[in-house]
Design goal:
It is globular, with a radius of gyration of 22 Å. Helices cover about 15% and strands about 45% of the residues. It starts with a strand and ends with a strand. It contains 6 helices and 21 strands. By secondary structure, the chain is an alpha+beta fold. The strands form 4 sheets. Strands 1, 2, 3, 4, 5, 6, 7, 13, 14, 18, 19, 20 and 21 form a 13-stranded mixed β-sheet that branches. A 3-stranded mixed β-sheet has the order 9-12-11, with no helix packed on it. The chain has a 3-stranded mixed β-sheet with strand order 16-15-17, with helices on one face.
Length: about 300
């Protein structure tokens, strides 16, 4: 059974009554993890809900999600007087806060974390250190973007948050956990979607100040007939800046080219970063995929998990 404990800004704690509905969605990054829970209203909530700032969801003694309380609502329906709470994972703190414009001569990960993460009380687990020169954070960037752009550019990985609310500076994909699904597995639904729309075949970087035109080509997509060119203007850019920007744009455009949605009749079947091995002969669908989104929920239809898997 899932339970949710609220924490208030003045240090009090309150465990919600038995939940009638709940919904936890995991991505590990952006959009950040989220939570919705509905329970019968208790008069004791009157003092707690307006002060609630953090939540922790528990199941069988383990933490399923820790994050920031965004909204509460009280409603009257046929089920009686209900209270609902919505929140997001701890990544919300980095997404909601903007960074100052900063330029680093030689940036260390410890500096980036110290300036953009640690001031928000977030626990960090550094698994892959990285450094780089000439890194700049543009005005208006979120603290998440300041961190993510740095680790992606100089370390080749996207940081992520665990369900316990810990920021991990290291790659999420390839966690080693495997879920195997075959024709005999209890599968409620499946949908495979493959789209060429949005995938970039070429990024043309133009630096008019220096008179440079730098094409970056998605060779695999171009080889198979893809044609979608983007043009970006980067004044006074370096060759490394142009190469990285073009490759990043192409990489991001291809992330959702292939997606498979699965629904299983049990909660928390897999989490982002886990792998799913499909062996579904009747659908001619085999192979190993990465979980990019996981949604576990409970309502009038029972408990279940919805997974989105793709190639990474």
């Amino acid at each position: 059974m899932l339970s949710i404990r609220l924490e208030t800004w003045d240090g009090a704690e309150y465990t919600l009554p038995v939940l009638v509905r709940w919904d936890l969605e995991y991505t590990g990054g952006v959009p950040c993890d989220s939570m919705t829970a509905v329970c019968l209203y208790d008069p004791g909530m009157a003092e707690v809900l307006p002060k609630a700032t953090r939540f922790t969801a528990y199941r069988d003694g383990g933490i399923m999600l820790r994050g920031v309380v965004d909204t509460y609502e009280i409603s009257l329906s046929r089920q009686g007087l209900l209270a609902s709470i919505e929140g997001r994972g701890m990544a919300a703190l980095l997404l909601d806060n903007e960074s100052e414009a900063l330029t680093y001569g030689r940036a260390l990960l410890s500096e980036i974390l110290g300036n953009h993460v640690l001031p928000y009380g977030i626990t960090v687990d550094v698994r892959q250190d990285v450094s780089g020169g000439g890194y700049a954070v543009a005005s208006g960037s979120s603290q998440w973007k300041a961190l993510h752009s740095f680790t992606h550019r100089y370390g080749g990985y996207d940081p992520y948050f665990t369900s316990e609310g810990v920021l991990v500076a290291g790659p999420l994909w390839g966690s080693g956990k495997m879920l195997r699904i075959c024709d005999d597995s209890p599968l409620l639904s499946l949908r495979k979607r493959e789209s060429r729309y949005g995938v970039i075949s070429q990024v043309l970087i133009q630096d008019k100040v220096q008179g440079v035109r730098h094409p970056v080509v998605n060779r695999e997509f171009t080889r198979t007939g893809g044609q979608r060119r983007h043009v970006l203007y980067m004044p006074r850019s370096t060759a490394e800046d142009r190469r990285y920007t073009g490759e990043y744009q192409i990489e991001q455009s291809a992330l959702e080219q292939l997606e498979i949605d699965l629904e299983l009749p049990l909660p928390f079947a897999a989490m982002p970063g886990d792998r799913v091995e499909l062996s579904l002969d009747r659908l001619h669908l085999t192979g190993t995929y990465e979980v990019v989104r996981s949604r576990s929920r409970m309502d009038g239809d029972g408990e279940r998990t919805e997974l989105t898997v793709s190639r990474r």
